[in-house]
Amino acid sequence: MEGNGFPRRTLLRAGAAGVAASALPLVNVHGQTSGGKLALGLWDHWVPAGNDAMRKLVMEWGQKNRVEIQLDFITSVGNKNLLTIAAESQAKQGHDLLSFPTWEIHAQSRLLEPMDDVMTRLQERYGAINPITKYLAQIGGKWMAVPAVSGSQNKPAIGRIDLLKQHAGIDVQEMFPANANPGSKAAEWNWDTFLKAAEGTHKAGFSFGLPAGQFTDATDWIGSLFRGFGAELVNAKGDITAKSDNVRRVLEYSQRLFAFLPADVFSWDDASNNRALISGRSALIFNPPSAWAVAKRDAPQVAEQCWCFPAPAGAQGRFTPYQPYFWGVWSFSRNKSAAKALIEHLSQREQAAAMVAASNGYDIPPFASMTDFDTWEKEGPPPGTLYNYPLKPHQKAEQFIACYPAPPEIAVQMYNQGIQAKMIARVVQNKEPIDRTIAWAERELEGFKRG
Amino acid sequence: MSDATLSAVPRPHEAAPRSALQRIARRNSTIAFLLTLPLILLILGLVVYPFLYAIYLSMLNRRMTRFIGIENFTFLLSRETFWDVVFQSVLFAVSAVLLKALIGFILAHVLHALPAKGQRKWRGMLLVPWVIPPAISTLAWWWLFDPSYSAFNWALAGIGADPVPWLGATGWARFSVILVNVWYGSPFFMIMYLAALKSVPDQLYEAASIDGANGWQKLRHVTFPMMRNIISITVLFSLIVTFANFDIVRILTNGGPQDSTHVFATYAFQVGIQSGDIPLGASVSLFMFPLLAVFAVFTLRGVNKRTKEMA
Q: Which residues on B lie below 8 Å from A444 (Cβ)?
């Protein structure tokens, strides 16, 4: 030590202070103890930079809290994430913390750790939360998971500015500009206007790209259409209510609308609508901005004509399709406190902003107070194209999951088996009478009610 | 050389146990058992245990908290969609296997007739569909059938024909999934039948020629009888694999349009994994078992009978 200028006592003091400082965050995370190992299985983001940003946030937290992190990104391609969840729930071992897609919280609620403490603090800090997340993750009054920022998405309309103006007479930038002052025609953006626009663009060879198969993009926009018409197949109590005028009306409307869509939409998957937009063959799709992001890379001339705006309104209101992810902790996890602390850390505004920025605006935080990040204002071209991607008060819209408000154990089957899309396919493709289609749906729904 | 010359003279107190052990170790049945033990363990671990576990799962309620006996099975039998799946599975498996057997048989004969020099090259090329992992080759087929950008439709447009909804209309979608399965599976039949053809003694054909038999008569009275066992076993094996097919339907149509291409495995996945009802999914997949077991029993009984007759 001789000649280094630091006396032994100073060094010892500095060392002790260093140890204390490194231990402080453990105490600061709401008094929860941390440390040890934590195995995470997070959603493999569509946007490649999304994984990098998440890794950085998680590793920084791990270092700060002296928690050894094992991080796996699990893809939803081929339902790999569902298989992982099913396997871990059967084996009662695996990761401590997982990303759960939309319906999985109800399915796995018996094996999940309640998150009321985390949710109470988050809601106290950030205010109102999206009611759909309550429907999907609050069971018996208890939050069984925390709505995740990463992976949660809206599916508003993404339209071509030029084609809609030219062939449908709709100026989407004027209707829903990149500010909180909607245009005079915003209130007229309803399913009737939508039908006329579909006809106009179809005649010009740029049909709307609306899938109608059994994939989520189809289920989501069709769910929004049904909800807009008030066409509820099963009510919140679990009663089958498919035999109604509203259901008949939405099916009649579908017969008219599908006359202006490509004939093959019944076999489209979740990528088909993206391709339709990116290739320049479609004037409008319902999707998160990933389609626009790919166009920005592969077809910039298409991307600079794209604009995000809310779904059309129906008699019952305007409903933006929403698909959330959740962060949940298994009850058999060996490090629950650290897992909860990490989830709470990732749900903070700063982390949410970082994830939204890294995902080019794809991720949608669950709190209304977090829909003002500048990422959505700045992203382009064209500048402001994503301004209306998150839900904002001036849109007068609600986030919505298809098949709501049916009890989730029934809704999950309706959703995954695409019952609304199949009803449309029956009346449009098979030309079945509407009443017979409704009778078929009632029989199917009766089966879904089984406990 | 006798055993006695190989072994040292045992001490009286060691003689009994060592000789007993040696006797056991030298038994053919013991050696056979030890040699098959790895396979037995593999089958126990990867076939018997999952099968029994699937039976256990199929008797639980949706939440897997209560034993409900055969309720899942009776529920399925009351569902319209399930009966559609049964019909489609049978249609898919039977038509695909028959076509594969027919194409394999024709290809085997064509190959057998080729001179030995060029045969190996053709055999290798014709085996290509079978050696490519089906998940990958099916993706390539999906691109050919793609609803909007189908290469087939592009070619049809070139000759002025209307586009075909390969995956969007019930009939065409069923045709497409069967076609891909036939494309993938025919080489297996071809190679099995080729091996069987090569083992038919030439003297039988020569004798038939002397008796004045024409080509069809030789095929009917010499080739077919000699190949009957291999045909039965390949058809049985292929039927089991085709019934349990998952990847082709899953990738091409996801069971659509309107559930019209679902087979047992894809429907079980949709109900069990995607819709969170694992017991019902297990019940769907177990429905394959009695169908295939009955078919297997009859086929194998026929094979045994013919083998005994030939012996």
A: 80-81
User: What are B133's two structure tokens?
Assistant: 């992992």
Search chain A and give the residue with CA nearest B143. A272
Contact B272, B282 (CB under 8 A): yes
Tokens for A405, please give them.
């408000």
Q: In chain B, what is the straight-line distance between the N-terminal and C-terminal CA atoms, in Å?
A: 34
pLDDT in tens, A322-356: 999 999 999 999 999 999 999 999 999 999 999 99
CA pseudo-torsion sign A77, A81, A84, A86 = negative
Our CA-based measurement puts residue A130 at a distance from the nearest CA of chain B, in whole angstroms, of: 24
CB contact under 8 A, A412 and B259: no
Burial of B213 (0-12, 13-18, 19+ CB in 10 A): middle
pLDDT in tens, B78-129: 999 999 999 999 999 999 999 999 999 999 999 988 888 778 888 888 999 9
- DSSP secondary structure string, B94-148? HHHHHHHHHHHHHHHHHHHHS-HHHHHHHHHHHHHHHHS-HHHHHHHHHHHH-TT
Tell whether ipTM is more than 0.85.
Answer: no
Q: What is the pTM of this model?
A: 0.84
Contact A386, A308 (CB under 8 A): yes
Q: Within 13 Å and on the Cβ side, how many CA atoms surround B244?
A: 10
State which residue of chain B sits closest to A214, comparing Cα positions. B256
**Sign, Cα dihedral of A386, A392, A394, A398:** positive
Q: Which domains does chain A have, with CATH numbers?
A: 2-152+324-375 (3.40.190.10), 154-322+387-450 (3.40.190.10)
Angle between helices A408-416 and A434-448 (to 10 degrees): 130
Alpha carbons A394 and B241: distance in angstroms, whole number = 57
